[in-house]
Design goal:
The complex is a heterodimer.
Chain A: E1 4-6, E2 9-13, E3 18-24, E4 29-37, E5 43-50, E6 55-58, E7 61-66, E8 71-76, E9 85-93, E10 102-103, E11 107-112
Parallel strand pairs in A: 2-11
Antiparallel strand pairs in A: 1-3, 3-8, 4-5, 4-9, 6-7, 7-8, 9-10, 9-11
Chain B: E1 5-7, E2 10-13, E3 19-24, E4 31-37, E5 43-50, E6 65-69, E7 75-79, E8 88-95, E9 108-109, E10 113-117
Classes of the chains: A mainly beta, B mainly beta.
């Protein structure tokens, strides 16, 4: 079955880089996503990567995918206090019919001024 | 509307009462999802609607939970005889129709309904 795991907490200093890691079990995953959830709000898509890619960069965000190890990471450069939030990794497994997105447990990022 | 709208934003109820939560998806989004998020935990899938297909109810935790959707518009999640363990944030998301195969599935979330069962 599908399982997506993340560490629960990460603390970094403002201006440093943050790296949030995720592992997943479904080798047939097609798309992998990173969502951000700010306090009291729903999830917002940050970025996604297709499984035939190994890296995607979007401004301060870099996504790295190691498909062999089923490991996904999100790097945030020059982390700001506004980046403090919970970050969810998610995957879309390949299956017929519709596609259900499986979310990880979320990593709470704390940015220290 | 511009985004996914959920109501109420907060609901406090007494144990044993029924509650109804509402979700208005983004216009044109045929797929609609309900999730439960307990305090400090990840998202727990509850139910999924896709157009006129039979909904996927595999995530509903008990027969006290049910959901309806009218066509491709509003959905309601009903919890009967609420229990304290039902206290959580209930999130709704919608997305465009997902093609079979390799289509990406970007979900747009509402702000959620925070349910507190006393």
């Amino acid at each position: 079955g599908e399982d997506v795991e993340q560490s629960l907490f990460l603390s970094v200093r403002e201006g440093d880089s943050s790296v949030i890691n995720c592992t997943y079990t479904d080798s047939s995953s097609t798309y992998l996503y990173w969502y951000k959830q700010e306090p009291g709000a729903g999830l917002q898509l940050l970025t996604y990567i297709f499984s035939n890619m190994d890296m995607k960069q979007d401004q301060r965000l870099t996504v790295l995918l190691n498909k062999k190890d089923k490991h996904l990471s999100l790097r945030i450069a020059d982390t700001q206090t506004g980046d403090s939030a919970i970050y969810f990794c998610a995957e879309t497994p390949l299956r017929g019919g519709y596609q259900k997105v499986t979310f990880g447990t979320g990593t709470k990022l704390q940015v220290i001024p | 509307g511009a985004g996914v709208s959920q109501s109420p934003s907060n609901k406090v109820t007494e144990k044993g009462k029924d509650v109804e939560l509402r979700c208005d998806p983004i216009s044109g989004h045929t797929a609609l999802y309900w999730y439960r998020q307990r305090l400090g935990q990840g998202l727990e899938f509850l139910i999924y609607f896709q157009g006129n297909s039979a909904p996927d109810k595999s995530g509903l935790p008990s027969d006290r939970f049910s959901a309806e959707r009218t066509g491709e518009s509003v959905s309601t999640l009903t919890i009967q005889r609420t229990q304290q363990e039902d206290s959580a944030v209930y999130l709704c998301a919608s997305s465009l129709a997902v093609d079979e195969g390799l289509g990406k599935n970007i979900q747009y979330f509402g702000a959620g309904t925070r349910l507190s069962v006393l």
